[in-house]
Design goal:
Heat Shock Protein 90, 9 helices, 391 residues, Beta-Lactamase, Helix Hairpins, elongated
Length: 391
């Protein structure tokens, strides 16, 4: 008995590996064949109350078409293993007479009280299955059911993710064209009415901001699609982080004129030189500033600081907002993750994009936060060594 349990345990360890559905069925049958010392195996699963072949270790067994009154349905109904000899097998399934099978054991599979299918093992040897082997397979059956359910759930989750990604990609691309037109006309109206101090000018200002925000959301979706499909391209060049931050602040102050923002530059001249993609680093800094603004009261300052340390140029964005809870903190850089303190703005992709961009620059992103005390996001990028060591 100890050897049997050990063998089943070893099989269970193999089932822990993430496999596709077909590979899962194959692995289950192979392990069952080893346990029973048989020659062939197959799995049939219920689909609309009919048993259908999921896997067979030999093509000839794909010919078997279970009939409602045959032994497979009987085993499923009785929820007990059924053992058959060659005469019984070939009487019901003459199409596999060429295999010269000597005996078969059919094991029902049930998820709690709900039957899900059967697994069968066939032997060419002149032997008959014993009660010990029946008991062993009864122990093996729950492990098989759990493994099948796990693989099916993983498959369903994967299909759902693929469907979601396809929808996001199509939606982002379809929205891009009309949104460009809307933004163009909005900017024209804004330029004509911005200085008139009328209700219409305030409406256009609000419309301009909201259309910009919608454009940013669409751009983020497109960036995610490019990351997922491996089309997120980088243009590497020598650039200066201070210049990127200055441009980010200029854009940010235009987009969010009511937020208070302070700049602290502790960099020595020339110590902010890096190799990077200017536009993607600009996007990263803007995402961090935008995130800070979402969670900060308008009367509290957002502080962006620059310094260098141990071969890195460091940019910190610190807010005095709601903060991030301890349970949410490890997950804030996941795609589409929005913690319990989210403001309702955005889709939870800003930090995901920032993390990917920083990682491609061989940098590090760190996040420190306490609830109701604010959040600090730190980006560390490798500093380009200076030609003049005295600088």
């Amino acid at each position: 008995m100890d050897n049997t349990l050990e063998a089943i345990y070893q099989s269970g360890l193999k089932f822990l590996s993430p496999l596709s559905l077909p590979d899962t069925y194959r692995q289950i049958v192979e392990e069952g064949i080893k346990l029973t010392q048989t020659d062939f195996g197959s799995i049939l699963l219920l689909d609309n109350k009919e048993l259908k072949k999921a896997y067979a270790s030999a093509p000839v067994f794909c010919k078997i078409k279970p009939r409602k009154r045959d032994f497979m349905y009987r085993a499923l109904k009785a929820r007990e293993p059924v053992i058959l000899n060659a005469k019984q097998i070939f009487r019901h399934h003459p199409e596999i007479k060429e295999t010269k099978i000597h005996s078969v054991i059919i094991l029902p599979l049930s998820d709690r009280i709900k039957p899900i299918g059967v697994i069968s093992f066939m032997s060419l040897k002149n032997k008959f299955f014993s009660e010990k082997e029946k008991d062993m397979l009864k122990l093996f059956a729950p492990l098989v059911v759990l493994t099948i359910r796990k693989a099916q759930l993983q498959f369903q989750a994967q299909k759902a993710m693929e469907t979601r990604d396809l929808f996001i990609s199509m939606a982002a691309h379809e929205l891009k064209t009309p949104l460009t037109t809307i933004n163009g006309y909005t900017q024209l109206l804004y330029s004509k009415l911005a200085e008139t101090n009328t209700p219409e000018s305030r409406w256009i200002e609000e419309l301009s901001w909201e259309s910009y925000r919608l454009g940013q959301l669409v751009n983020e979706l497109l960036e995610i699609d490019r990351i997922r499909t491996g089309k997120f391209r980088y243009v590497w060049e020598e650039c200066y982080l201070k210049e990127i931050v200055d441009k980010a602040l200029l854009d940010f102050r235009f987009i969010r004129p009511h937020n208070k923002i302070l700049m602290e530059n502790k960099l020595m001249p020339g110590h902010d030189r890096i190799i990077g993609d200017y536009n993607k680093l600009l996007q990263t800094i803007l995402n961090l500033l935008d995130n800070a603004a979402k969670f900060s009261p308008l009367d509290k300052s957002i502080v962006i600081s620059l310094k260098h340390k141990s071969g890195y140029v460091i940019c910190q964005v610190k807010d005095q907002g709601k903060g991030i809870s301890k349970k949410d903190l490890p997950r804030v850089c996941q795609m589409f993750y929005r913690g319990g303190n989210h403001s309702g703005e955005g889709m939870g992709v800003g930090l995901f994009l920032a993390k990917n961009i920083v990682a491609q620059h061989r940098g590090i992103i760190n996040i420190r936060s306490k609830e109701n005390k604010g959040t600090t996001v730190e980006v560390k990028l490798p500093k380009l060594k200076l030609l003049n060591p005295n600088l």
